Amino acid sequence: MHRHRDLCERAVDPLEIAAGLEARGVTDRTAARYRHRDVFSLAEEMYARAPRDGDPVEPHPTAPPGRRTGPRGTWAVLSLLPGAVGALTLFAVENTSGVARLTLGCAGVLAVGAALQAALRRGPLRTGDGPPAPSTGLWVWWLLTYATLGDGLLSAALAGGPDEAWAPATAPLLALAVSVAPGTWCAYLFMAGARRRLATSRGLAEFAASARPLLLGCVLLFALILVALLAVAGAVLDQDVDYAGTTSLGVLLLLSRLLAAHGRTHAPAVVLGAAAAVETLAVSTVFAARLPGCDFAGTPVETLVDGAGTGVVPAIACTVAALALLAHAGRTLTHASAHAGPDATAGAAP
Questions:
Q1: What's this model's pTM, rounded to 2 decimal places?
Q2: Nearest partner of 231 among 179, 154, 306, 307, judged by Cα
Q3: Which tens digits make up the pLDDT trace of 112-161?
Q4: Is 144:314 a contact under the CB 8 Å cutoff?
Q5: Which residues contact 171 (CB under 8 A, 6 or more apart)?
Q6: Alpha carbon separation from 246 to 123, 198, 301, 330 (Å, rounded)
């Protein structure tokens, strides 16, 4: 009680104490030394014995008091903005030409970026413990740029070019912009479900075991929705779509933002940077192979592309990165301390 006095005095319910104890390294084995079966039981006694200067004892809630965690917030509407703005931009670009097309395209990119910022300021994907690492935004824009222009550049480079401009792949961008809405809803399902499981779990191991399938299920649901959106976007825009690369990129971006919303910003920045580096290295080696005596540099990429197409580069880079980030999220977002504090559901507020 003396060692964790600050935690006990500011806690609004026993769940917050349990989460704080877990974050400080207290386990069920430690609780057993104090004659409690688990950390949750120990936290309940500490909450009951903590002095609060005459403040009334609050009932044991299943969600933080005073917060609306239901889906009826403005974030539900704002999450639709990136897709709507992206669709309008593509419609305008497809029906113009010359300078007007370039101007509308640049303005549309800025508008989609502003809509995305507005959508992420509220809702489950809002960062609660400060903004993401400064480099994260750079890597995100690089990965999106490669999804639009990278395959065309790589194909032209392998053919000895580029000798002329190539058509950008706009279908992946449209699908990713529209997927902001289902991604936000999937994040809400995970956060709300984790809070419910936290309220009913009687141990840290029990909560982690129930939260992992929930996380995997929400990620899988988002991936399936994104595949459907890619199919629709490809049919509407009459473009071939790289399902593996774009789907893994979408999952990677969702996991990065979900971790950032829980204050975990270092791992997403590192993993996103690694994926961007792999894509950059793949294109660079093809151009480096043109230097005298460096023919060997482009052999690995040429072999991969000959066997699986240019989409193999983003597919490998983003899939490996997404799996690494999913493993990290499976360890960090299944801790009670990621969901029980007052800020844990900050993103779920309307």
A1: 0.78
A2: 179
A3: 888 888 888 888 888 754 555 667 888 998 999 999 888 888 888 888 87
A4: no
A5: 230, 233, 234, 236, 237, 239, 241
A6: 24, 33, 19, 22
For residue 331, count other CB atoms closer than 10 A to its CB. Answer: 10
Residue in the structure block whose two tokens are 């403040």: 55
Residue 111 has phi, psi (to 5 degrees) of -65, -40
Q: What are phi and psi of 257, to 5 degrees?
A: -70, -35
The answer for residues whose C-beta is within 8 angstroms of residue 246's C-beta and 6 or more apart is 147, 172, 175, 176, 226, 230, 314
Residue pair 256/139 in contact (Cβ under 8 Å)? The answer is no
- The answer for residues whose C-beta is within 8 angstroms of residue 264's C-beta and 6 or more apart is 328, 332, 333
Tens of pLDDT, residue by residue over 213-224, are 999 999 999 999
How high is the mean pLDDT of the chain? Answer: 80
Nearest to 170 by CA among 264, 92, 99, 248: 92
